[in-house]
């Protein structure tokens, strides 16, 4: 089975659009999202454009604040303070990665946790681990929605997460472990010994390594559910833009063994954006409750 992220994301977006309309009728305004992007990284620019367009499609007021790559950290902190204070701003997203001269941790800690629609602030990360209500990081939250809406059995399943980033791997592990999902969770990374031996035990395998087609068929158990978080550009001169997108999974080989698998593109990516919209609506509802 192919898990169609585009179709599931469309369902989530329709639900958010209806929530935004109810919010508008009750509050007399729409949720407001501000996206901050430093510099001109082409991948970041394309993600930010997609986020803004998707937000507008569900009726969220979205603006991108494009800043030069050499913006100072203090200027950036001043901008965030302004957005934190602005009564009409519900959600703030700082697109990562940031240029090297900026301390990413300091920027994330400067966000008002109530407006942190990425769920990266330590307060929100703490709540996630405790199982409290919070704004959940969009990519892992989107994966949970995909698993639920595709009726993948999670209770007691062995979930193996490959990758330990703060954006995907760590919050993914916390969510899968939670009451309600109830997975047995193993987290692997670049230093893991006998990686293939561990991934072959996975009922649910989440690949978030950031290396093109890293997960090969011999690493996957027959009948597993495979979630591919990777978005890697590989050179392809037959394409007009000169590259194609591939995941962290060798899709054509692994699909023969997996019971269910997400494609790239059209898998996790659209879900990440849909969950950002859901988080923006949630932030607006909680701020005005
Ligand atoms: N860069 C890659 N993924 C993400 C994400 O989910 N949020 C932000 N802000 N930046 C990212």
From TrEMBL:
NADP(+) binds at residues 163-165, 231. One of its GO terms (molecular function) is methenyltetrahydrofolate cyclohydrolase activity. Pfam families: THF_DHG_CYH, THF_DHG_CYH_C. Residues 3-118 form the Tetrahydrofolate dehydrogenase/cyclohydrolase catalytic domain. GO terms for cellular component: cytosol. GO terms for biological process: L-histidine biosynthetic process; methionine biosynthetic process; purine nucleotide biosynthetic process; tetrahydrofolate interconversion. Its EC number is 1.5.1.5, 3.5.4.9. Keywords: Amino-acid biosynthesis, Histidine biosynthesis, Hydrolase, Methionine biosynthesis, Multifunctional enzyme, NADP, One-carbon metabolism, Oxidoreductase, Purine biosynthesis. It comes from the Bacteria. Residues 137-287 form the Tetrahydrofolate dehydrogenase/cyclohydrolase NAD(P)-binding domain. It catalyses: (6R)-5,10-methenyltetrahydrofolate + H2O = (6R)-10-formyltetrahydrofolate + H(+); (6R)-5,10-methylene-5,6,7,8-tetrahydrofolate + NADP(+) = (6R)-5,10-methenyltetrahydrofolate + NADPH. The keyword rRNA processing does not apply. Homodimer. Belongs to the tetrahydrofolate dehydrogenase/cyclohydrolase family. Catalyzes the oxidation of 5,10-methylenetetrahydrofolate to 5,10-methenyltetrahydrofolate and then the hydrolysis of 5,10-methenyltetrahydrofolate to 10-formyltetrahydrofolate. NCBIfam families: PRK14186.1 (NF010783). This is Bifunctional protein FolD. It comes from Rubricoccus marinus. The gene is folD.
């Amino acid at each position: 089975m192919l898990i169609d992220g585009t179709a599931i994301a469309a369902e989530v977006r329709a639900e958010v659009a209806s929530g935004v309309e109810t919010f508008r009728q009750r509050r007399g305004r729409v949720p407001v999202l501000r996206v901050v992007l430093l510099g001109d990284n082409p991948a970041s620019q394309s993600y930010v454009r997609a986020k803004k367009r998707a937000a507008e499609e569900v009726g969220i007021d979205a603006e991108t604040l494009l800043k030069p790559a050499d913006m100072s950290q203090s200027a950036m902190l001043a901008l965030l303070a302004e957005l934190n204070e602005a009564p009409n701003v519900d959600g703030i997203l700082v697109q990562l990665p940031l240029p090297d001269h900026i301390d990413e941790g300091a920027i994330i800690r400067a966000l008002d946790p109530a407006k942190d629609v990425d769920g990266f602030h330590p307060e929100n990360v703490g709540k996630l681990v405790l199982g409290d209500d919070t704004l959940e990081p969009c990519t892992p939250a989107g994966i949970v929605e995909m698993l639920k809406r595709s009726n993948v059995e999670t209770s007691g399943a062995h979930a193996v997460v490959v990758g330990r980033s703060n954006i995907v791997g760590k919050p993914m592990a916390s969510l899968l472990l939670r009451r309600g999902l109830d997975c047995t969770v193993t987290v692997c990374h670049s230093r893991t010994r006998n990686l293939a031996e561990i991934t072959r035990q996975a009922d649910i395998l989440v690949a978030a390594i950031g290396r093109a087609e890293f997960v090969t068929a011999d690493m996957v158990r027959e009948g597993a559910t495979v979630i591919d978080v990777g978005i890697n550009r590989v050179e392809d001169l037959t394409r007009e833009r000169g590259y194609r997108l591939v995941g962290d999974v060798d899709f054509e080989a692994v699909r023969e063994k997996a019971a269910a698998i997400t494609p790239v593109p059209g898998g996790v990516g659209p879900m990440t954006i849909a969950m950002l919209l859901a988080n923006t609506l949630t932030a607006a509802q909680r701020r005005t409750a």
